[in-house]
């Protein structure tokens, strides 16, 4: 950027107007935004450790523990850290789940609101001149539930908290009704912040929300009811020409999926890893792999909304705890890692095809970053796991996904 600018300044008087016009037309209008999600702030981290899977963590780390949700220090330093890496962003996407994984008996309407309020205040402090587009997560409602009721008190209260960011009085009804809204990022480009509802205008849209449609893999679990999932996918397919990208959270892992209309890739849904390092341990024995806090910087085309690159940052929890100093480290640039010029849907289709070789470097990279640490997991994704992951990347609705699962793995 800098050398180019100097060149233009130096030749200021020598170049005809046409030169500048050409620069204006040729140079992509590139912008950046941060996407952070799933803080799951455990307000009891230093006392009762309510989120810590029933464990007694005798030496909880300064910035968190992999069995627990985020202490305030992680919430605060992670947001401060975004500003240190890149303060000049067009906006910040914050896709929900601020409330920790603790039972409803330890929460209340007022406490949930307070948690969202305090993180909002922090965001405002660290990004005072930047719009933050926030959405609800399934944990933010009280009682925590995937399908928040209509017209709840929490919608009305949260609207007051996020009002200055939304900055458009015409959205108050949408927000009160269902916790969703739409904002114009600039002429021709719009963001739709979803809760469980959505609607469209003729602008190009970036869709942001918490719970994604499709299947999380390798678990092969669908979050939405079959009917709602199908409806969601149908709407995206019907409006794919105006949808630039979808950015979601909820899964806590780094992933994506493609919407196909027949054989044609028409839209990409990117899933950002969580800030919380919390991992679950189910009574049946299933244990989630350990993962680090993450945040991503997204490079996009301001005119078309098209995704140009993702710079995925992470914090190695053991290291930052040892150093007593929180820092975001660049994990990867998606275009560099996958060898594509941008993250357009055509490029992402090529990425998916390159992942179909389970022993190839592309799939190994996908597996390495799934847990936001860049390391080979102890339990590598075997042939069956690879098969399930590929089905999840390509098929978002019940029948094709199940057909893919039960199709021979060719191994
Ligand atoms: C947790 O462990 C600490 C140190 O080992 C011990 O002092 C404390 O009593 C334990 N608390 C519970 C609730 O087990
Ligand atoms: C939220 O912020 C207020 C004001 O700083 C503070 O009094 C309160 O304790 C915070 N809430 C929690 C759960 O820490
Ligand atoms: C939320 O505000 C609207 C006014 O926009 C009001 O009609 C509705 O009753 C309020 N809902 C609750 C649950 O307070
Ligand atoms: Zn979450
Ligand atoms: Zn969630």
Brief characterization of the structure:
The protein has one domain (27-345): Metallo-dependent phosphatases (Purple Acid Phosphatase, chain A, domain 2, 4-Layer Sandwich), CATH 3.60.21.10. The chain contains 13 helices and 14 strands. The chain has helices at residues 2-10, 17-26, 72-85, 109-126, 153-166, 172-178, 226-238, 317-323, 334-338, 345-355, 361-370, 383-394, 398-406, and strands at residues 30-36, 91-94, 131-134, 181-186, 189-193, 204-208, 215-216, 221-222, 243-248, 255-261, 264-271, 294-301, 307-314, 329-333.
Can you describe this structure?
This protein has helices at residues 2-10, 17-26, 72-85, 109-126, 153-166, 172-178, 226-238, 317-323, 334-338, 345-355, 361-370, 383-394, 398-406, and strands at 30-36, 91-94, 131-134, 181-186, 189-193, 204-208, 215-216, 221-222, 243-248, 255-261, 264-271, 294-301, 307-314, 329-333. The radius of gyration is 21 Å and the shape is globular. The chain is 34% helix and 19% strand. Strand 4 (181-186) and strand 5 form a beta hairpin. The strands form three sheets. The chain has a six-stranded mixed β-sheet with strand order 3-2-1-12-13-14. Strands 4-5-6-9-11-10 form a six-stranded mixed β-sheet, sandwiched between helices. It is built from 13 helices and 14 strands. 43% of the residues are buried. Helix 3 (72-85) runs parallel beside helix 4 (109-126). It is α/β, with parallel strands linked by helices and 411 residues long. The protein has one domain (27-345): Purple Acid Phosphatase, chain A, domain 2 (4-Layer Sandwich), CATH 3.60.21.10. Bound molecules: 2-acetamido-2-deoxy-beta-D-glucopyranose (NAG) (3 copies) and zinc ion (2 copies). The site of one 2-acetamido-2-deoxy-beta-D-glucopyranose has 3 residues, from helix 4.
């Amino acid at each position: 950027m800098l050398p180019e600018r100097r060149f233009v300044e130096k030749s200021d008087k020598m170049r005809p107007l046409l030169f500048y016009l050409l620069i204006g037309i040729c140079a992509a209008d590139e912008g950046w935004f941060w996407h952070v999600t799933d803080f799951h702030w455990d307000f009891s981290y230093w006392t009762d450790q309510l989120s810590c899977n029933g464990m007694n963590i005798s030496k909880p780390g300064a910035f968190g523990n992999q069995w627990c949700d985020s202490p305030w220090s992680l919430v605060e330093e992670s947001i401060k850290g975004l500003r240190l890496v890149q303060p000049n962003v067009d906006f910040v996407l914050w896709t929900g789940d601020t409330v920790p994984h603790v039972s409803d008996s330890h929460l209340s309407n007022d406490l949930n609101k307070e948690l969202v309020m305090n993180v909002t205040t922090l965001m405002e402090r660290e990004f005072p001149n930047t719009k933050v587009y926030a959405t609800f997560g399934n944990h933010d409602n009280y009682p925590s539930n995937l399908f928040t009721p209509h017209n709840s008190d929490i919608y009305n209260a949260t609207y007051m908290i996020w009002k200055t960011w939304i900055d458009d009085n015409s959205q108050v009804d949408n927000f009160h009704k269902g916790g969703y809204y739409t904002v114009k990022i600039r002429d021709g480009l719009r963001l739709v912040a979803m809760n469980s509802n959505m609607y469209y205008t003729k602008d190009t849209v970036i869709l942001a929300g918490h719970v994604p449609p499709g299947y999380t893999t390798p678990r092969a679990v669908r979050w939405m009811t079959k009917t709602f999932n199908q409806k969601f996918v149908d709407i995206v397919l019907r409006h794919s020409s105006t949808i630039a990208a979808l950015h979601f959270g909820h899964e806590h892992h780094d992933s994506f999926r493609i919407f196909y209309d027949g054989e044609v890739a028409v839209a990409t849904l990117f899933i950002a890893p969580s800030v919380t390092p919390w991992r679950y341990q189910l009574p049946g024995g299933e244990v989630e792999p350990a993962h680090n806090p993450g945040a991503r910087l997204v490079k996009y085309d301001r005119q078309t909304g098209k995704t140009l690159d993702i710079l995925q940052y992470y914090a190695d929890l053991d290291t930052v705890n040892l150093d007593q100093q929180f820092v975001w480290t660049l994990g990867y640039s998606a275009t560099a890692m996958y060898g594509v010029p941008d993250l357009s849907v055509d490029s992402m289709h090529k990425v998916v095809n390159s992942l179909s070789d389970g022993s190839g470097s592309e799939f190994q990279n996908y597996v390495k970053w799934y847990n936001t640490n860049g390391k080979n997991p102890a339990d590598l994704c075997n042939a069956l796991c690879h098969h399930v992951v590929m089905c999840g990347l390509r098929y978002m609705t019940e029948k094709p996904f199940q057909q893919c699962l039960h199709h021979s793995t060719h191994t």
